[in-house]
Design goal:
Elements (H helix, E strand, L loop, with lengths): L13 H17 L14 E6 L5 H12 L3 E6 L11 H10 L4 E6 L4 H7 L7 E6 L5 H15 L21 E5 L6 H12 L3 E5 L15 E3 L2 H5 L5 E4 L4 H6 L8 H8 L3 H6 L5 E3 L12 H4 L6 H20 L8
Parallel strand pairs: 1-2, 1-3, 3-4, 5-6, 5-8, 6-7, 8-9
Helix pairs in contact: 1-5, 1-12, 2-12, 5-6, 5-12
């Protein structure tokens, strides 16, 4: 792979996106062994640089790095010199001086990962673990990996055949519902899923759609039930990010009850879905708000599978950026 960093889905072309997904499948195959660790990144040090709270993403990157035999340093802004006013630049210089080989960064400011990668403060690969409301590329990749597996699986065949390398998502229909305004997951998924040939429909109230969404490569719908009438292959529910809404003063919808009535995947909507439609969610879930317990816990929910695939995707990204055989320019 020719990339030096993984900052945005828009940095990937079609071939690179499929290479990441195919490599993730290879990584996933190794996780059924008795010994899951690979020696690929032995002697390398990966830093988890998290300026924003996270559970799934941080633990997933940590697991991915350790399964490739890298050493991992977890850095949290809380309790560090950042809380004393240290700048992103000085933190970067410190990491370079400590001998880090790659930095995984999560930050509340859009563009922070790009700044860290390209400001000239350090000469290390940067993986974006989510920056503000901008991008979350590995989340989109794990979502695409999950969807690709189910879209190309014959539900009548008990034997699950491995995907052929280079399999894309041409013909898949995906509905993404909820707080698009604050969602880096929605942006990244629209970019990646459409790159791979899927059609995407965003569903949200007007107050939860960003300015300029009409220029995105997707359809926009305000009526959830009308979008479901398209018989999608996947319905992805987005978390209502109440912490960002509170910071902006609130007022994005009348009440939680009314939001759930109009845009929640309740029992009635879930029961009306086609038998092969899968339910996705990037987590953490607000049960009873954007998704009902019946939908979240149903056999068609692939939320737990998404988490497992996240480790494989992040192993693939680290391998392709850091391993000599993955990135010949290293």
């Amino acid at each position: 792979m020719s990339l030096d960093h993984l900052i945005s889905i828009r940095d990937l072309d079609y071939r690179e996106a499929l290479l990441l997904l195919d490599t993730a499948e290879q990584m996933a195959a190794t996780q059924f062994r008795r010994v899951k660790k690979l020696p690929t990144l032995h002697g390398r040090t990966v830093v988890n640089l998290f300026f924003e709270d996270s559970t799934r993403t941080r633990l997933s990157f940590e697991a991915a790095a350790k399964r490739l035999s890298a050493d991992v340093i977890n850095f949290s802004a809380k309790g560090s010199s950042v809380s004393k006013g240290e700048s992103l630049k000085d933190t970067a210089l410190t990491l370079q001086a400590m001998g880090a080989d790659a930095v995984i960064v999560r930050h509340s400011s859009s563009g922070a990962a790009h700044r860290l990668a390209h400001a000239g403060w350090m000469d290390l690969p940067v993986l974006n673990a989510g920056d503000g409301t901008h991008q979350h590329p590995t989340q989109a990749l794990l979502d695409a990996m999950t969807l690709r597996r189910h879209f190309h699986r014959d539900p009548t065949d008990p034997e699950v055949e491995p995907l052929a390398p280079g399999t894309d998502l041409a013909g898949a229909r995906v509905v993404i519902v909820g707080d698009v305004l604050h969602s880096r997951v929605a942006r990244s998924n629209v970019d990646l899923l459409t790159l791979l040939g899927a059609s995407v429909t965003l569903v949200a109230p007007p107050t939860l759609l960003p300015v300029g969404v009409e220029t995105w490569n997707c359809e926009v719908e305000y009526d959830f039930d009308r979008a479901l009438a398209q018989e999608p292959d996947a319905v992805m529910m987005l978390r209502v990010q109440r912490e960002r809404m509170s910071a902006a003063g609130g007022g994005f919808f009348p009440s939680p009850g009314e939001y759930h009535l109009a845009y929640g995947l309740d029992r009635q909507r879930f029961d009306a879905l086609g038998p092969d439609t899968i339910i996705m969610h990037p987590g953490p879930m607000n049960r009873g708000l954007e998704i009902s317990a019946e939908a979240a816990d149903s056999p068609r929910s692939v939320v737990v599978e998404q988490v497992a695939n996240g480790v494989s995707v992040r192993m693939a990204a680290l391998y392709l950026l850091l391993a000599p055989e993955g990135n010949p320019r290293d």
